[in-house]
Amino acid sequence: MSDNKVILNYDGKSFEYPIVDSTIGDRGIDISKLRDQTGLITLDLGYKNTGATISEITYLDGDKGELFYRGYPIEQIAEKSNFTEVMYLLLHGELPKAEQFSSFENNIKKYNFVADELKKLIDVFPRSAHPMGVLSSLTSALTAFNPKAVDVKSKEELDYASELMIAKFSHLCAWTYRKTQGLPINHGDNSLNYVENFYKMAFRLPNEEFELDPVVVAALDKLLILHADHEQNCSTSTVRMVGSAHTGLFASISSGVSALWGPLHGGANQAVIEMLELIEKDGGDVNKWVAKAKDKNDGFRLMGFGHRVYKNFDPRAKIIKKAADDILGKLGIQDKALDIAMQLEKVALEDEYFIERKLYPNVDFYSGIIYRALGIPTEMFTVMFALGRLPGWIAQWREMRLKGDPIGRPRQIYQGSQLRDYVDIANR
Ligand code: CMC
C-alpha cells in the first residue's frame, strides 16, 4: 500500500485501488472496479467497514466521542443554537443569516396546516396502535396529498418540499400522540416557533388554557437538536436507499420512520424506560441485570448501552445526562428510574465485560428520562426522536439526489442450492 492506493494481489495478478481522501476521519478504498477486474465482491455484514457514500453533512469520531454538524461541534450547537436554525444548517450547509432564518421560518409557517382528509385516516387506527406505525403511515399518505414528484434540479422545488415536510411532520407527530390519548386534533399556531408550536399542538388540553413552560420548551429544543442527524445510521441509510430509486421525499421519510422504530435503533429510548421500570419492579438489584446482560445464554441486553460507532462516551449522552439533572431539578421531580439508571451506569462502566467491549451509555439512555419528566408517555419517545431526526433525513436525501448517487443495490454471496430440476408435487 502507498499513500494514495491499495494494491491487491490475487490469482497471480496485482490490482490497484485508489484511496479516497476525507477532510477529517476515515479515508476509504475505492473498490468500484473490484468485481470487474477480479470477479470478487466484498462481504461486510452490517456495513461495519463500508462507506456507502461521500457526505458533507455530519462528522463523528466514535473513538474520540466527537460529533460535528456541518463542522460545528455538537456541544456548541446544543448550547447556543436552536432547532430551527439547526434544521437550516443541516439542509443548506451554513448557519443562516438573520434574513435567511426568518424566510425559512416563515415558509414553514406558511405550510403549517394539514389537509382535513388526513384526519379521517387517523380515525381508522385503533387507539392502541403504536404511534410509530401510525406516523409512518401518515407520512407516506402525505404523498397522496402532494403527488407531484420533486424536480431536484430546481432549488425552489427542493426547498419547498423540504419546508413542507418539516411543517407537516410536526402535525403528524402531534396528532399521533393525541390519537393515543383520545384527544381532539389541534391545528398549528403561527405566533409560536416550531418547537413551541409542536408542543402546544401535542399537549394542549381541550378544557384548559395552555401555558408554554419555558423549561419544557428549552428541554425539547435541546433533545431535538441532539437527534437531528447522525450520518449513515440505520434509518438514514434506509431513507437514502429508498430515495436512491428516485422514490419521493415523503415516501422515503416514511421508510426512515419504520427503520427508526426498531429497539436497536430509535426504539431504544422506549426500551430503556421499560427496562428501568422492570428492574425497579423486580426489586432494583442492578447487579442481577448487569449479570443477565453479560450472560450469552440470556437474550437480555442493557438497553441504552453500546453503539455501532461510539467506542467511547456518546457526546450526546453527556449533554443529555446534564440536561436530565437540570430538568428534574427545575421541575422538582424525583425519579426512581433515574436513580436506577445512575446505578446501572456506575456498575456497567466498572465492569470488565463492558470495558473490554467499549460499551458506554448512548443518547437513548437518558433521553427517555427527560421525556418522562416532561410528561410524555413512553410510547411517544421514538416519535420525538423521529421529529428530531427529520432534518437529518431530509438533508441526506437531498445530498444523495443532488450528487446523483446511483440506485443502492448491494450484491450477495450465494450459498444456497446449486441448479436443480423442478420436481412435480406428486413425486416429492
Ligand atoms: N448489552 C450487553 N452486551 C452488549 C450490548 C448491550 N447493550 N451491546 C453490545 N453488546 C456486546 C455484544 O453482545 C457483543 O459481545 P461479543 O463480542 O461477546 O459477542 C459486543 O458487545 C459487540 O456487540 P455488537 O452487537 O456486535 O455491536 P453492534 O455494533 O452490532 O451493535 C448496538 C450496536 C447499538 C445495536 C448494540 O450495542 C445494542 O444492541 N445496544 C442496545 C440497544 C441500544 O441502546 N440502541 C441504541 C443505539 S444509539 C441510538 C440509535 O442509534 O438510534
Task: Give a written overview of the molecule.
- The protein has helices spanning 34-38, 74-80, 83-92, 98-110, 116-123, 131-145, 155-181, 194-203, 214-226, 234-243, 249-261, 268-281, 286-294, 315-331, 336-349, 352-356, 363-373, 381-403; strands at 5-10, 13-20, 28-29, 58-61, 66-69, 72-73.
- With 428 residues, it is mainly alpha-helical.
- The protein is globular, with a radius of gyration of 23 Å.
- The strands form 2 sheets. It has a 3-stranded antiparallel sheet with strand order 1-2-3. Strands 4-5-6 form a 3-stranded antiparallel sheet.
- Helices cover 52% and strands 6% of the residues.
- Bound molecules: carboxymethyl coenzyme *A.
Uncertain spans, ≥5 residues at pLDDT below 50? none
CATH class of the domain at 5-51: Mainly Beta
Determine the mean pLDDT: 93
CATH architecture classification name of the domain at 5-51: Single Sheet
Distance between the termini: 54 Å
Q: Specify the overall morphology.
A: globular
Number of helices: 18
Q: In order across it, which strands form the biggest sheet?
A: 1-2-3
How large is the share of residues in beta strands? 5-15%
Helix proportion: 40-55%
Tell me the number of strands.
Answer: 6
